[in-house]
Amino acid sequence: MSAISDVATEDVAPKGADQKTPPGVLVDGPVVDAKFLDSYIAFGLMIPGSIAALIWAFTQGIGWTEILVFVGMFSLTTAGIGVAMHRFLVHRSFRCGPIMRAFFCAIATMAVQGSVLKWVSNHRRHHLHADQPGDVHSPYYDGAGNRYVSYLKGMLHAQGGWVWDQETTDAEYYAKDILADPIAMFFTRTRWYWYGLSAVLIPGAIGYAVGGVHTMIGCVLFSGLFRSYVMTMATSLVNSVCHSDGRYGYRRYELEDGTTNELVTTILTFGEGLHNNHHRFPRDAYLSHAWYEIDINGAIILALEKLGLVHDVFRGGERSRS
């Protein structure tokens, strides 16, 4: 249970879970319906927007403004997932005051990867059942717990196909702390405003201020919608490539899952590709265990600690390895 930060300690299956699914998995009802609605809307905007962005880039061209806004928003929201959503809200790798907590919830939500409540619930379930039946996005099992025979189908499921599984995670089981947190729940309820701010309003406002309507359109399409989709795919590499059981990357620790550390994913996600390290020490704030392992998210947390903006940074793995 330590992998999910001592959350979800009941062992009674909630209503909606059948005998094949473990506790904390819902297979029908309004939560499942809401999951599909969110996915249809989000991908219904991001995918056509990304296609339009590529058409725009090839026909109208993009300039330094679009590129710099893309890089800036990609960096902000990548840290939003890695530092804020993953290490802070899921694993409680450090603590902070309410102002910083609100900031972290904001940039986590602006990554356009689902609400704080859904993301935290899914990831804690993933750790509890890593690469076993019940894992949300394993390349080895589908949402119903059936093992994939096809390697390709499993990788596609882990890379994003899991979003369309009939099963979903019960937040009452995995994320009671988030449900009880008014700041996190505010951002959960207002998530679509933050998605719009990230994918449309901020890129569009910068584009209009710098270059007028033409640059505004380019920024919304390329630096907003396309960037959101690219970042979602980059994050999903952690689910697929970094659970390849050594096919890609390397395994520093022999664990009962398929996790690996993989360089390209590590660079794209600012350190989340050090996934074998993470599954060995899931609560650690800093994931680099060698000079050649790059953990930008961990470095950001350590810098924030030096500035006094966060505290109680967890480094349990350092003591275990010494």
List keywords for this structure.
322 residues; mainly alpha; two-stranded antiparallel ribbon; globular; disordered N terminus
Low-confidence stretches: 1-19
Structural class from helices and strands?
mainly alpha
Total strands: 2
Strand order of the largest sheet: 1-2
Q: How many domain units?
A: 1
By DSSP (H or I, 4+ residues per run), the number of helices equals 13
What gross morphology would you assign? globular
Q: Distance between termini? A: 24 Å
Structure commentary:
By secondary structure, this protein is mainly alpha-helical. It has one domain. Helix content is about 60%, strand content about 0%. The chain has a two-stranded antiparallel ribbon. Residues about 1-20 have low confidence and may be disordered.
Q: What layout of secondary structure does this protein have?
A:
Layout: E1 25-26, H1 30-59, H2 64-90, H3 98-109, H4 116-128, H5 151-159, E2 168-169, H6 171-174, H7 176-179, H8 182-189, H9 191-240, H10 263-268, H11 275-280, H12 296-306, H13 316-321
Antiparallel strand pairs: 1-2
Helix pairs in contact: 1-9, 2-3, 2-4, 2-9, 3-8, 5-9
Summarize the model shown.
By secondary structure, the chain is mainly alpha-helical. It contains 13 helices and two strands.
